[in-house]
Amino acid sequence: MEKVAFILKTTAHPTRIAIVQLLAAQESMSVNDISERLRVEQSLASHHLSGMKLKGILNSHREGKNVFYSLKMREVVDVIQCLAACTFL
Fold first, then answer.
1. Residue-wise DSSP of 9-78
2. CA separation for the pair 39, 62 (Å, rounded)
3. What is the number of alpha carbons within 13 Å of residue 36 lying toward its C-beta?
4. How many CA atoms lie within 13 A of 47 on its CB side?
5. Residues 24-38: tens digit of each pLDDT
6. What is the CATH number of domain 1-85?
7. Can you give the residue ranges of every domain in the chain?
8. Which of 2, 42, 53, 70 could hold 28 in an S-S bridge, CB 3.0 to 4.6 Å?
9. Alpha carbon 81 to chain centroid distance?
10. Which residues neighbour 20 within 8 Å (Cβ) at sequence distance 6 or greater?
């Protein structure tokens, strides 16, 4: 239960949930690609990405000037999908 609570606390924002859903469908994505797909400012996407990386939800690697992110904790996807399937939401 502690792991579920940690996941919920760390992803408790619509932009963070959308980032997790994007990364669940793609192996990795750059900050630019994520911000374009979500139609948010790059600085906002970077803020959410760095926070989730610090908490251990995401991995990142640099290729030249671009930073690419991927899911480190795949269980996050299961928790979000489970909540999305709830009929009371």
1. HHT-SHHHHHHHHHHHHSS-EEHHHHHHHHT--HHHHHHHHHHHHHTTSEEEEEETTEEEEEES-THHHH
2. 22
3. 5
4. 7
5. 999 999 999 999 999
6. 1.10.10.10
7. 1-85
8. 70
9. 13
10. 11, 52, 57, 71, 76, 77, 80
